Amino acid sequence: MNLKGCRTLLTGAGSGIGRSLALALGANGAKLALVGRNEKNLAEVAREIVRAGGYALTFPEDLCLPERHEPLVFSAAARLGGIDLLINNAGVSSFCEYSRENPSDIDNLININITAPLLLTRAVLPRMLAAGHGRIVNVGSILGSIGFPHFAAYSASKFALRGFSEALRREIAGSGVGVTYVAPRTTRTAFNSDSLYKISDDSGTAVDDPATVAGIILEAIVANRDEVYIGWPEKLAVRLNALLPRIVSIAISKQVAAARQLLRAA
Ligand SMILES: NC(=O)c1ccc[n+]([C@@H]2O[C@H](COP(=O)([O-])OP(=O)(O)OC[C@H]3O[C@@H](n4cnc5c(N)ncnc54)[C@H](OP(=O)(O)O)[C@@H]3O)[C@@H](O)[C@H]2O)c1
Fold this sequence. Notes:
single chain; alpha/beta; binds NADP nicotinamide-adenine-dinucleotide phosphate
């Protein structure tokens, strides 16, 4: 996909991976509609893009509200002159023992991580299919392929997003509209708590920076890739988990014990 002039709706654009993605897309000539709740963050990102010679508009929205998805797509398409690329990047995590998970937090997580991408895709897809071109990018996670203890609700949402991406890609094959599923590994953003980064650092697990992840996502878009798993040995762990899940259970047991200790002490 050519990024020059590419009319892009990007969720979660005000921070972390989304912010890095917005800056990189803007620098490559994409025309951006930036979505998130925090208006100040969005305005800062848009200002930075415009200052560098790019084009960006801000759309402050709470993606937990399903009735806002259609109007958001409608108004972004009207102001950009169409939508060629939808990037479902906004997401929330929950790191806790599942028996203590708050039901309203589960609801919120499912709304943002899976209902919003499904409904935004449903809203942009007819226009893309009619135009015979476009791309949906869903930002998942390595935990969308490896069910990870203490991330049960989060893993469930990203497994669902991966399944949705695969099914839709097969359904619309040959239409000119593609679906990319990207699975980052742990990335240093406000998404995770400091204690979680400490567990990663103590166990020698690599943590990516958001600009690196954004660069990989950009390459995947340009190359029209179907699926991208970020990081080695995480790529291998995904394959191994599909074939021999017990080996992965053993491999992650130290990290899981450290997480359990941390959560119980909290
Ligand atoms: N960081 C990691 O370790 C990691 C690893 C694998 C995958 N990922 C995935 O990468 C994506 C981006 O995460 P990140 O690490 O960049 O975290 P982040 O900095 O916390 O970004 C998440 C974004 O989602 C937006 N968001 C959250 N709730 C929202 C809502 N109700 N309505 C609208 N926007 C909402 C936030 O914007 P507002 O606060 O302005 O609403 C924020 O900009 C997520 O899908 C995450 O699952 C992250």
